[in-house]
Amino acid sequence: MTEPHKLLIDGEWLDTAERFTVRDRFSGDPIAEVCAASEAHAAHAVERARAALDAGPPPPHARAEILYRAASLLESYRDRLVALMVAEAGFTLVDAGTEVSRAKLTLELSAETAKTICGHVVPFGAHPGSEARIGFTLRDPIGVVCAITPFNSPLNTVLHKIGPSFAAGNPTVLKPSSLTPLTAGLLGQLLLEAGLPKRFLHVVHGESAVGEALLRNPNIAFYTFTGSTRVGKIIQEHAGLRRTQMELGSIASTIVCADADLAVALPKIANAGLRKAGQVCTSVQRLYVHTSIHDAAVATLADLARGLKAGNPRDPETKVGPMISPEAAERAESWIRGAVAEGAKLHCGGRRTGSVLEPTILTEVPEGSRIWCSEAFAPVIAVTRFDDIGEAIAGANDTPFGLAAGVFTKSMDTALRAMRQLRFGTVQINETSSARADVMPFGGVKESGFGKEGPSYAAIEMSLERLIVLNP
User: pTM of whole model > 0.90?
Assistant: First the structure.
């Protein structure tokens, strides 16, 4: 292992006595020691971030130039970022490369947002007696932003928080997942090289104790979090009247109607349910297929799943890499076995080697089974049949969550009905639940959270709107 990966506070890389180990997700071998922040380190990071507010952010055009420069630098960092994500997140080479390409776009979108975020003119002429008034709103930085990020997107999700925050003029204290801290550290180096002012980004590594210290800090104005609903509720309790953006748990569904183009739909579904080892909040977990095409669709989907090589993520032929830990893979394997014991039919997969779980297709899963009613976060698709679209919509809605859903149909009537009745933050027509463009507003309803990612939308949430009125 190389020199320990350090904290980034006020532009300095800080060593600490307390450290934790990061392991290769495929081999299990230790690959790095990471310095863990104390409560004092977390407080110092927030204090230096507040100092950035006192000095004021660079002007919008300068913030945009820094973000554009960071986007350009990503290409020179690509190989290092890919290698880190393959090791610490278990991404395949394709998934890691895609993550870098998306991150570049996220930075570019954040740069555009920095140049265009603004208020609006108030139409006082609509109010009798106020015709002579002139009013407009301003958007100011909200304050210190705390970003707490997940393991399953250690680069792009991090930038969906840092990028809009800086675009809006805020300093950010980042606590990346302790499972994937190395990518965040390298990103910090890249952003400093791009010219990000040193007090506008601080990276503090650690586990729950660091997060708890940040939640107790009254000088943080905004929390942006991607992770479990359980942790999201804890953050919200601490936040009080401070604003938050929460992207939380999910059980994502996709519906395939009788008139769907299966040649288009099924490859998309296999990819959306099984890529990144199914560890995506919008991965297709429940698949509703019309009875008339159910058997043929399942047979094709199982063939597609068998064709996705699972194993070493450094092998260019591998399509499904390891899960984040042996324990996570063991949990998913036990859920599959439990479903089969309860009467589900296993069409392919279900076997585990270390952290690698083979892509799995199940049918006839009882509704009370864990694999059906809890978020699997694994390369598993549970397929059920339906006769009426209303039945499929009701089934998809029947979870505490509401992040994303997809519907494949050629019928405009069916599409319109699904658009109106599916209670999800995103409804994709002729795409899967997992389709996402980084420019779009992304967020959930119900226990999947609230607020939006997407640079232009997130920057609005991370800013304060003030009204200015000029009276005659």
Answer: yes
Packing angle of the helix pair 208-216, 39-55 (nearest 10 deg): 40
Q: Report how far apart the first and last C-alpha atoms of the chain are (Å, whole number).
A: 70
Check if the beta carbon of residue 397 is closer than 8 Å to that of residue 249. Answer: no
User: Number of C-alpha atoms within 13 angstroms, CB side, residue 85?
Assistant: 26
pLDDT of the chain, 472 residues: tens digit per residue: 456 799 999 999 999 999 999 999 999 999 999 999 999 999 999 999 999 999 999 999 999 999 999 999 999 999 999 999 999 999 999 999 999 999 999 999 999 999 999 999 999 999 999 999 999 999 999 999 999 999 999 999 999 999 999 999 999 999 999 999 999 999 999 999 999 999 999 999 999 999 999 999 999 999 999 999 999 999 999 999 999 999 999 999 999 999 999 999 999 999 999 999 999 999 999 999 999 999 999 999 999 999 999 999 999 999 999 999 999 999 999 999 999 999 999 999 999 999 999 999 999 999 999 999 999 999 999 999 999 999 999 999 999 999 999 999 999 999 999 999 999 999 999 999 999 999 999 999 999 999 999 999 999 999 999 999 999 9
The whole-angstrom separation of Cα 301 and Cα 299 is 6
User: Nearest-CA neighbor of 212 among 37, 53, 48?
Assistant: 37
Q: Is there a contact between 109 and 330 (Cβ–Cβ < 8 Å)?
A: no
Helices (H), 117-179: 156-167
Residues with a catalytic annotation lie at 247, 281
Enter the DSSP assignment of 293: G
Matching residue, tokens 């690509």: 78
* Sheet with 222-226, side-by-side order of all strands: 12-14, 7-9, 201-203, 172-175, 145-148, 222-226, 243-247, 449-450
CA distances from 346 to 95, 274, 299, 351 (A): 27, 16, 12, 11
